[in-house]
## 1
Amino acid sequence: MDRLAHYITWLGAIAIAGTLIVVSFSLGYYSVWAIVGCVIAAIVIAYPSGRLVSNMIKRWDPAWDTRKEAPQPDLKRGGSHERHPPK
């Protein structure tokens, strides 16, 4: 698992856990085990979604070589400085 997938997984897990904890509190479950269950469910849900989003980002990036799992060194991305050359 690459770094991008880790970041997306933990970002998604925090968001999902927060939502599940708010839902469990609004339903009247205030125990520690309800919170632990929400955190575990969030990690289980966020892991595949993090991998999916990471692969999708890499697939859409024209400078990423999926065979080597590394950026292509010779492909220019086309930043704003290339569209408007200095005069």
## 2
Amino acid sequence: MKKIATTFLLIILTFSLLLCLIPTPAKAAYYDCKSIIVVDYDTKAANDPFLPVDRIKEIPITLDYYVSGYFAEEVCKAYGGIDAFIYLNIDGKPDWCTASLSPNFLKMDTIPSVLSENATLIIKISKNAHAQSIGEIKLNVTVGSVGPIKGGTFYSNISFIPGYYPLLDINTPDGTVKRIQPLDVTDFGIEIENLGNAKTIVTTSVLNIPDGWTVSVANETTLGTATIGDDPKKTILLTVRPSYEFGYHNERKVINVSLVPSLIDNPSVKGQEYFISFIVQNKGFSTPGFETVYLLAIIIGAGLIGKRHKVKTYSKHKKRGEDN
């Protein structure tokens, strides 16, 4: 019985000695232990559209690390106190943004249970980022080997959405002040350029129309965006016709115009309201128009005919009375 126990102990010692002499890769294959990293991120923060003017978007990232394998617990005990080094890199990103990770290096204890560490993906987008498009950041997370514990590289894609950036550049090449006569009609050119990052509808309205005046402008104008190669410029006309009531005019009126940009696919998403003021001086004498003269001629003509008819009728009755 003692011989059997002694033989068994010698076998165990010989096996342990041989195991110590086995190269590390062979040990790893034997133990079949490896590091596992699971990358997760805050989808709410990523999917919440943000504007280029916000400059920076931060997306929290969580990395869960553990050692996997049948002998994971034994191996981790043997190599306890030796950290696994984890490197975070960005493999790909859209051209219209910059991205970085903070921190980009982590240390984890080699244990079979899950350990979690946090990092932050920092994104900065330019005005060329097309609104509502999906941007994607590709992450590369690499962990080195620790003794027989194999390392590896893990990948994750993080999606985010640029928001709508409503911005207009408005010019009035004809100026904003004009002097006209009562029967004149004048136009003010309004040049509008979409500096935002999506196709835009500009809603235009006249805030005040002077009594007796006629003022008109296009209610809606659709502008392209340079982010996808469309023409972002258009010119609209504000047409003004002053009062032309009979008499002398010398009046100066201010006409206020409002312009509001909104996202073409969702008009409820609007930008700030823009205002332009135009000044028109209506000076001069207004004579009745052709229609008025024609109407007066008809009335006067009808009056003369009626009067003449009455005279003839009166003359006939008078002559009959004399004959009787």
## 3
Amino acid sequence: MAEPDDLSPEELALVDEAVRTGMRRRRILITGYLISLAVLLLGLPTALYYIGSSGRGEWAAPVMLAPWAAAGAVMWCFGRWSRRAARRA
């Protein structure tokens, strides 16, 4: 592997830009993971409460899919955003 002293200024700038792009993409993805975790931590107990408070003969099981769908949508949106940010750089 080449030492930083052996690289030309153009090559150093290229490596620096690649590292910055990767870090930006990872930061966006980690933010998406944390937001989807918050969606799950708030959505699952809410869905359980809804199921528990629904009527005796009422079928409310599909409500449990909503938090998972919301978390998946959040991760999908942040994944698209990170790919778009990497392409722009």
